[in-house]
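Table S2 (text version). Query chain:
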Amino acid sequence: RTPRSASLSTRTPRSASLSTRTPRSASPCTRTPRSASLSTRTPRSASLSTRTPSEWCVLQMWLLPWGFTSKKVPDYDDMYSMGRKAVEAISKISGTQYQIGSSTSLLYPSSGGSDDWAKGVAGIKYAYTVELRDRGSYGFLLPASQIIPTGKETFAAIKSIARAIVCKT
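Corresponding C-alpha cell output:
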C-alpha cells in the first residue's frame, strides 16, 4: 500500500482513538504545514522534522519512512545514503552519533510521522524525522545548555543535505 493510508496521530474530543488512518491532518499544527507543502508550485526536495526524544530513548536517530510498516520505501538506499551524509556532518561537528533507519527497524511501528506524510502524500523525495539529543537524561525537555550545540550540528546536517541535492541537479 502507499503511505496515503498511513496513520496520522490525532487527538480530538470526538475521537476515542489517538490514532486514525487518514491522509488528513486533524490539528492546526499539522494543517498549516500540510497546506503550505501542497499549495506551493515549487517542488520540495527535502523535509526534516525534529524533536527531542522521551526519557527512555538513549539513541539519537535519523528516521526514514515508513513508520507504519516494515516495508522499505522504493528509494530506501538513496534516502539512507543522504541520511548517512547528514549524520556524518553531525559527527564532525560534535562527535554525536546517530542511528539511521525507519522507526520500525530502530524502535517500533509508529503512526503520525511527518516523514511518512511528506514522502507519501506530498511527494517529497528526502523526508526525515530526527530524534535529537539527549541520551535519556532529560526526555522532551532539553536543557538550555544543549540548544546551541544541537542547533549547530542540525544545521551542519541540513547543509550537507542541501549540498548533496544541489550536486544531484
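Notes on Table S2: The chain has one domain: 44-168. The longest helix spans residues 147-168.
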